[in-house]
Request: fold
Amino acid sequence: MSKRTTDKRLKALNSVVSSSVKHFKPPENLTVSEWADKYRRLSPENSAEAGPWRTTRTPYLREIMDAFTDPKVRRLVVVASSQVGKTEVELNMLGYLIDSDPGPALFVLPTVDVAQDFSKRRISAMIRDCKRLKRKVAESKSRDGNNTVLKKQFPGGMLTITGANSPSSLASIPARYVFGDERDRWPLSAGAEGDPWGLAEARTTTFYNSKMVEVSTPTIKGASAIEASFEIGTRERWCYQCPDCGEYHNITFSDIKFDFDTTKVKGKKNYKVNSVWWACPSCGCVSTENQIKKQPAKWIAENPDAYNQGVRSFWINAFASPWMPWERIVLKFLQAKDDPHRLKVVFNTILGELWEERGDLEDEDAMLARREEYPAELPDNVLVLTCGVDTQDNRIEYEVVGHGHYGETWGIKKGIIMGRPDNPEVWERLDDVIDRTYRYKDGKGLKISMTCIDSGGHYTQEVYEVCRARQNKRVFAIKGKGGDGIPYTAPPNKVPIRENKRITCWLYTLGVDSGKSQIMAALKVQEPGPKYCHFPRGEERGYDTLFFNGLLSERLVLKRTRGRDRWAWEKIPGHNRNEALDCRNYAMAAFRILSPDLEAVEKRLAERPEAKAKKVKQPTARPKMKSSNVYDDW
Ligand SMILES: [Zn+2]
Reply:
């Protein structure tokens, strides 16, 4: 091997490149996948398959990698679940550019801390284990300003690794290559400088041959940065040929059928997946994982014209991964399906799918059908009652919500009181709601522990006065504040009533967006138990079409204002009344502010004299789950 001569030739070429404007030809005309097959070694601390890289192991990565060496492609977008090798793809591109086509490069991760870690664990390990790179990149030494954890110099270029939260590093260096890793986890703004991707992109303007690579697991539909980038590209998906009809299809979870057993050990569900098949959407025939993975497969573009604009975008999920058997994917889904937060993680990181804050199941009709007959005004599992009140110019609306263990809730009563909020009679009628005793089946009673009244309308002063007069009943004024990152509840402030600074009332500021996310997540839970939302049947209760239309009136979208992308809740067309969602939000906040010790409350309730010696437990209406179940209609 004439390494030295190759090196010399490289050096000569590099100096030619830096002084010439011609397109650089890699010395051996290798593509990234060829380079990786020849030189890249997987590091033992980061890979179960340490040793030489083999593209044949993950054939779906070949075309993604080689798009990097295609001079026509200026921008590459990769949406991928974890366990498919997306980080290795980025490392291979990095290794290739350092070795074969050097230039200034910027590698941006969500934060500087993540960048430090990534550089030490992944980039340094790759350089250490790849002889060609080791020779070119000097060891990281703190005294040597050219090579540190976040800066790697090599002949003909410099790699800067940084975080999207660091505006100074994003705005200072010109870069021919820009990598954006985990794009959906980036802050929406780099300090006060605005969109970090925009800042990074601006670094490339002086290079005619610049290349931008964006990689991420997807997050929330409509609010995902990588989704937006994927859309403008070629929109390619990895498709297998159906062994029965010959059509090519991308394997998605919706076409996966499976059979499983459930056992309960100490109240905890255990799942055993017996078999998994893929059902072809064209012919309906089923195939196993083994059959599918032996089939011919290729990338199919939905928007091939984008190639002429130089943007290729790829979307890949764990069903193609050699490290993630389908059985394990299904098991992960089963273990997460009852908890929307875990389910979201499975959707994003394994199924490689966007998560919809409002799933299809939660349309008005489905919610109406879900209502149940309560055995009494208060089901036995309700331990605390709170009330949320929304004020409008001609009426007030309220909801009484029951709370049980682990975030399980029961709608108790939704009502409207007509009249202007400056009319005392309106509030007297609300007193009837607040002062009432709500009854369990055995005759025991419960009163509302806390009420939150919206002060944000046109009657702020009236609401303050109403609340001040009812402080002993824990009736408090609230003000909703929209926006990302505002905590749901915070300690209250004293606000003066009218001009008199000495007469004050408590005001709670609520991060209403955080409340909305929690409500939407809870509405997704499909089985009674933790976080499940119960709603009663019966006209007098008020849970009608209008209520559910209001409860499901908003969705999370990505909005661009003054050049910045922000997540914002937006009314869904046709859902113009959102009072039901606001009332529920304020009632949930009241419970959050109270944060009662539910164990103690339960004990107290049971010990009350009018309570029967033994509490009769009401069985909740629970759909019967067969021990073995083909679960394909979720
Ligand atoms: Zn078929």
About this structure: Residues 242, 244-245, 247, 280, 282-283, 285 surround zinc ion (CB under 6 Å). Residues 1-25, 611-634 have pLDDT under 50 and may be disordered. The longest helix spans residues 112-129. The radius of gyration is 30 Å.
